[in-house]
Each structure stands twice: as structure tokens, then as C-alpha cells.
Amino acid sequence: MQEEGSAEHKRMRAVRTKMTIPPAMDDLGAMLAFVEQQHEVKRGAVGCHGYCMSGPYALAAAARYPEQIAAAASFYGTWLVSEAEESPHLSLGKVKGELYIACAEHDNLAPLPMVEELRTLFGRAGTAGEIELYPGVHHGFAFPQRWCYDKPAAERHWERLIALYRRRLG
């Protein structure tokens, strides 16, 4: 993520606001179909994960393709609860796999009240998985190049992701 207010940050946000979930899911469907046609590829369930702006896409993918996606993770995902008709929180009940949602305690793009609302909606939907709040860290904590990199939290996020994939994908 670029410095807030910078030209690169503004460009990135402009791209994200135009790139909505439905066409991204159509692209993902085409990729899943392509992979199924490849002889060299192991058959079975798949997993996906996303950081920041791609966090909602990972959750949407698990809901849109519940038969294929057995594990999905979002790390400090943005706009996980919003007014948008494709907001990830609206399709939690369609997920058949397991979700792991990691949130940073200090995150303007996923503030604590939104995380608590998501936790409530997650429980109501009966979705398998968990929402974990990483205390004391900021949005972007997993990337060593970021000012807010937190090595223990970054290592934990890898441990949690790998455990999810091992559990659900073998």
C-alpha cells in the first residue's frame, strides 16, 4: 500500500473503485474452468487468500464457488461490510468451506466497529472459520517493505494460513 494521499495511492484507489467483485468473480470462474482442463493439475478443492483490497475478493470467491473453494483467507481486508450490493458480508451464508479473516487493531479501512459487526454477521451466518484481531498492529503488518511491518504478527499470519490450507486442502 502506498502512502496515503500520494499520487500512487490515489491511482491505486481509483483502480480499486472501478474494479468490482462481479467481473473479478467471472474471471476467477474462467481460471477455475481452465485449470480443470489441465492434465498436470491435481484435482480437488482449492484455496485463495487476499490482502487489503483483495481480501474481499477471497471471501467473495468462497461464496461464489463454494464447491471448488474449500479455504479462503482475508488479511486486513477492506470494505468487508459495506453498502455495496456485492459486499462480502452479504454472502457469508453461501460459503461451504472455511474462512479465516485477520484484522489489524489499527486500520482505518477496517475499523474495529466494522470488525465487530462482521464478527456478529459471521456468527449468524454459521460460517465455518474465524475472525481474528491482531492486537497492536496496523493495516499492512505482514509486508516487510511497509513501515508498519510486525514480524511476530507476520509470522502468525503465515502459520494461520498454512494451517488453514493443510486442514482444508490436504
Textual characterization of the structure:
This protein is of the alpha/beta class. 42% of the residues lie in helices and 19% in strands. It has five helices and four strands. It has helices at residues 7-18, 21-36, 55-64, 112-125, 151-169; strands at residues 46-51, 69-75, 98-106, 128-138. The chain has a four-stranded parallel beta sheet with strand order 1-2-3-4, with helices on both faces. Strand 3, helix 4 (112-125) and strand 4 (128-138) form a beta-alpha-beta unit. Helix 2 crosses helix 3 (55-64). The longest helix is centred in the C-terminal third of the chain and has 19 residues, at 151-169. It is globular. The termini are far apart.
Summarize the structure.
With 170 residues, the chain is an alpha/beta fold. It is 42% helix and 19% strand. Strand 3 (98-106), helix 4 and strand 4 form a beta-alpha-beta unit.
List the SSEs and their pairings.
Elements: H1 7-18, H2 21-36, E1 46-51, H3 55-64, E2 69-75, E3 98-106, H4 112-125, E4 128-138, H5 151-169
Parallel strand pairs: 1-2, 2-3, 3-4
